[in-house]
Amino acid sequence: MRELLDDVWFTRDLPVLRAIARLVDGPEYGGNPYLGQVVPASGLPKPEVTAAARALVSAGYVEALTNYAGEIVRFTGISAEARRLTGLWPTPQGEWDRLVEQLTARAENAPTDVERARWRALADAAVAVGPDDGALLMSALIGGYVPRAR
Predict the structure, then answer these.
(1) DSSP H or E segment with residue 63
(2) Spatial CB neighbours of 61, under 8 Å, sequence gap ≥ 6
(3) How far is the C-alpha of 52 from the C-alpha of 65, rounded, in Å?
(4) Exposed (0-12), middle (13-18) or buried (19+): which is 143, by Cβ within 10 Å?
(5) Alpha helices in 45-129 (DSSP H)
(6) What is the largest CA-CA distance in the chain?
(7) How far apart are CA 20 and CA 26, in angstroms?
(8) How many CB atoms neighbour CB 46 within 10 A?
(9) Burial class of 92 by CB neighbour count within 10 A (0 to 12, 13 to 18, 19+)
(10) 47-60, pLDDT tens digit by residue?
(11) What angle do CA 55, 6, 89 make, to 5 degrees?
(12) At 73, phi and psi to the nearest 5?
């Protein structure tokens, strides 16, 4: 049995990806932050950021410019998946959770018993549909696909 390496996604790579996404998406650095700007934004030491950056580039999450020695100098873009992982773009699961949360809140805060019952019924129906089918529905809505009536 092989010994597995320690997981670095949550402790190193994801925090660096979030920092890169914030900087690439924001206007402050023209959408092309230098590695030196990502280091303080991530809160990690430079060697950790450098290792994470290499891993993120090789996985296709970020695009980067390198110098002649092959060292990452600047970040020029992020993938659509990186936008979803960092929260810049919605995920179907996240939107379904938000919908159920909104329905529940409306049921709790409705001004009349009749409205409260209607919102509660809709919230209960959404919970009964479940997160898997709910995510499929939200995927269609996020992607702009609305099924035709048969």
Answers:
(1) strand 62-66
(2) 17, 78, 79, 81, 82, 85
(3) 15
(4) exposed
(5) 46-58, 80-86, 92-109, 113-129
(6) 70
(7) 10
(8) 13
(9) buried
(10) 999 999 999 999 99
(11) 45
(12) -110, -45
Which token pair is 117?
């019952």
For 9-86, give the CATH class: mainly alpha
- Non-local (6+) Cβ contacts of 146 within 8 A are 140
Task: Report d(CA 145, CA 17) in Å as an integer.
Answer: 29
Give the HSE-up count for residue 16: Cα atoms under 13 Å, Cβ half-sphere. 26
Residue 138 backbone phi and psi in degrees, to 5: -65, -35
Query: At 75, phi and psi to the nearest 5?
Result: -105, 135
pLDDT truncated to tens, each residue of the chain (150 aa)? Answer: 788 989 999 999 999 999 999 999 988 877 899 999 999 999 999 999 999 999 999 999 999 999 999 999 999 999 999 999 999 998 888 889 999 999 999 999 999 999 999 999 999 999 999 988 888 888 888 877 666 655
Could you give the CA distance from residue 4 to residue 13 in angstroms, rounded to a whole number?
A: 17
Q: Which amino acid would we find at residue 54?
A: R
